[in-house]
Specification:
Strand 3 (about 80-85) and strand 4 (about 85) form a beta hairpin. The longest helix is centred in the first third of the chain and has 19 residues, at about 40-60. This protein has helices at about 5-10, 40-60, 110-115, 125-140, 165-170, 190, 195-200, 210-230, 240-245, 305-310; strands at about 65-70, 75, 80-85, 85, 245, 260-265, 275-285, 290-295, 300-305, 320, 325, 330-340. The chain is an alpha+beta fold and about 350 residues long. The strands form four sheets. It has a five-stranded antiparallel beta sheet with strand order 5-6-7-12-9. A three-stranded antiparallel beta sheet has the order 8-11-10, with no helix packed on it. It has a two-stranded antiparallel sheet with strand order 1-2. Helix 1 runs antiparallel to helix 2 (about 40-60), helix 3 crosses helix 4 and helix 4 packs parallel to helix 8 (about 210-230). It is globular, with a radius of gyration of 19 Å.
Amino acid sequence: FNDRLRDAVHGGGPFDSDKRHHQGYGTGLFTDPNGHSPCSPEENRARLGHATDLVKLSLAGALRDFRFRTHTGEWKSGAELDYGGRPAGFASQPQEAVNYVDAHDNETLWDIGAYKLPLSLSTDDRIRMALLSLATVVLGQAPAFWHAGTELLRSKSLDRDSYNSGDHFNRLDFSGQSNNFGVGLPPASRNEASWPVIRPLLARPELRPGPEQIARAGAIARDLLRLRHSSPLITLGSAELIRAKVSFPNGGPGATPGLIIMRIDDTAGPDIDPQLDGIIIAFNASPRPITEKIEGVTESYELSPIQIHGYDDAVRAATLISGTVTVPARSVAVFLLAQRP
């Protein structure tokens, strides 16, 4: 299980004494500060750069020998990229890394956002950030794992360890009427030290999505699954093909905070998808739309039909024209380049 991706998306680690202190790529680090960070803006920009590097490597299967330009401008392999004093890249093949951003232990993805995202954020924007975080799993080259009910914005009312918490905190409402947030203070055994933070959060209405919001989140999550299976380029299956076809343009020290451009070039190496010459996936974790020229790209790509006809209204504004991409705030867009006749 690839905890590099989990920690980069969340920020900090699962055993932090105050979860609010360290945001991550999917929880507003630098681009949407929550006011609780002990670090300066300059430090948080560098932290976001490193978190972004870890997300990129994970999208490429957490391979030891995958090389890309990091946020410092250096070209590094996965084995050379640092993760708490250990190599960030550990896999020789993508099947050896299981990408995830939440699982049965620790807080759910929704609850991590409740802690870390700014309190001023609306419920709808929180949902967008949760789905963006999930997209880093679903649209990566490694096997994808998500926690039961993530697509339904599942909450355990901020319980850090629900192993012995019973049905009250572990309830998963498949009808989508409730996400189980705010059902009470989680048990003292693992949570009492955090009760002063937890108690006021559980009372906030914007952290309790309604049935229509839960249904829309589930529909968009299913669109992400359709995207994953829409082309074999998204799951190449071998380190050799990933090294040949996957790249991350627009990196380096001048990179736009929150933006990841993942290019999968099917004109490099063997032809994997007879319908396409390539895919570009653009992740925008910032609260602002981004328009940017993509290095080395001159063609116009089409937004995937799955997203054109899907459930995310905002992403339909995404375009990639003559190498210039526009991505709405808190969105991921998948662009296709049809194979030339």
